[in-house]
Amino acid sequence: MKVIVNRTYEDVSHSASQYIQTQIKHNPHSVLGLATGSTPLGLYKKLVMDYRAGHTDYSKVSTINLDEYVGLSKTHPQSYHTFMRNNLFSHINIIDQHTHIPNGQAMNLGEECARYNRTLELLGPPDILILGIGENGHIGFNEPGTSFNEKTQVVKLKESTRRANARLFSSIHDVPKEAITMGIESILSSTCILLLATGERKNKAIQQLLEGKIHEEFPASALHLHPNVTLIVDESAYNRDASPRQSFNPAIYE
Ligand code: GLP
């Protein structure tokens, strides 16, 4: 795993945007795997600014998102459909039919998972997959204990995840108890993975990722099994007692 330590959240967003813009220039038909949450918001802002400056064309790009809450409609303010529309899709020239997000309101969730796996197969592996990380090490919504051999699946959210995400809802009671997520096997099928982590809240998870064992109790550790993962962190997420702060900006550790 390559580790890039940037000074600030802004720098992390900039670094990640460079990867995406370069990828699309290299292949206008790129497939991007996308994440939600607070972490990639800065990245999406950078992509929108760059698009408005006329630098990148999304008309042939396809996207596939990691996850969606079960039970929320596409127009619910906290659905990941709404998140992607508000923060990226409605600001760039991507074609609606080229964007894919699990349907959290599907009548038959098992069939929806199978449909999503077929979509992934048809698109081919994402050229770049953006990931955030939960405080408990979840990626997508693959909670601790998830098998590394799962494709798209329905998962029960841990109370800690519901509490962490409750800040975006009126109360914890409104946070759905389940989600549909691309499984770890699907995540690892991507050609290149960018894991973004920013802020002190992620400090422990990053330390465990970099120093702990590969184990299903810490889902992000599966990323060590992939040959092309880049972790882009800011100082506060990386901040480890043993590391000299002056070597941070920007440093690359391999
Ligand atoms: C959610 C999402 C994840 C995201 C994680 C961290 O649970 N399903 O994809 O990585 O939260 O979110 P944040 O970036 O807001 O800390």
Please characterize this protein's 3D structure:
- The chain is an alpha/beta fold and 254 residues long.
- The protein has a single domain, classed as Rossmann fold, CATH 3.40.50.
- The protein contains eight helices and eleven strands.
- Strands 5-3-2-6-9-10-1-11 form an eight-stranded mixed sheet, with helices on both faces. It has a three-stranded antiparallel sheet with strand order 4-8-7, covered by helices on one side.
- Helix 1 crosses helix 2.
- The chain is globular and about 45 Å long.
- The chain starts with a strand and ends with a strand.
- The site of 2-amino-2-deoxy-6-O-phosphono-alpha-D-glucopyranose (GLP) has 14 residues, from helix 5.
